[in-house]
Amino acid sequence: MKTLMSVMLGVFAVSAMSAQAEQYKFVGTDESFETKLCVAVTSDQVVTLQTMLQAKGERLSVVRNAVRCNEMPIAEFAEQYGFTRVAQYLGSEKKDAIIAALAE
């Protein structure tokens, strides 16, 4: 995996006539694994990310620290746009630090 690769997604705001909240359509700018992960986040399906990570042999902690979507860490991206299930799955770097400290 390319370390600290910044993945850009095109974000297009689509206004819903009856809804007050903004809706977004996320479009990948290339076919890289990192871009596909960012687009997968928008499904808010944890199993989709798990399947992708297992197929590629990537660890969650590496993805969490290295993948950026719209110039922000992948977990922050998920939280920012309301993909709560994926945001919880991705957790944070603090979670890894706590687990590592408890293991010592």
Class from secondary-structure proportions = alpha+beta
Measured by DSSP, the beta-strand proportion falls in 15-25%
> Strand order within the widest sheet?
1-4-5
Cα-atom radius of gyration: 14 Å
Question: How many DSSP H or I helices?
Answer: 6
Query: What percent of residues adopt helix (DSSP H or I)?
Result: 40-55%
Sheet having the most strands:
3 strands, mixed
Intertermini distance:
28 Å
Order of helices and strands: EEEHHHEEHHH
Number of strands: 5
Poorly predicted tracts of residues: 1-21
Number of domains: 1
Task: Tell the overall outline.
Answer: globular
Mean pLDDT: 77
Note down, in words, how this protein is organized.
The chain has 104 residues and is of the alpha+beta class. The chain has six helices and five strands, in the order βββαααββααα. The protein has one domain. Strands 1-4-5 form a three-stranded mixed β-sheet. Strand 2 and strand 3 form a beta hairpin. The N terminus is likely disordered.
Core attributes:
104 residues; alpha+beta; 50% helix
What is shown here, in short?
The chain is of the alpha+beta class. The chain is built from 6 helices and 5 strands, in the order E-E-E-H-H-H-E-E-H-H-H. The protein has helices at residues 33-41, 46-56, 60-66, 74-80, 84-90, 93-103; strands spanning 6-7, 9-14, 23-28, 68-69, 72-73.
What is the element layout, followed by pairings?
Blueprint: E1 6-7, E2 9-14, E3 23-28, H1 33-41, H2 46-56, H3 60-66, E4 68-69, E5 72-73, H4 74-80, H5 84-90, H6 93-103
Parallel strand pairs: 1-4
Antiparallel strand pairs: 2-3, 4-5
Helix pairs in contact: 4-5
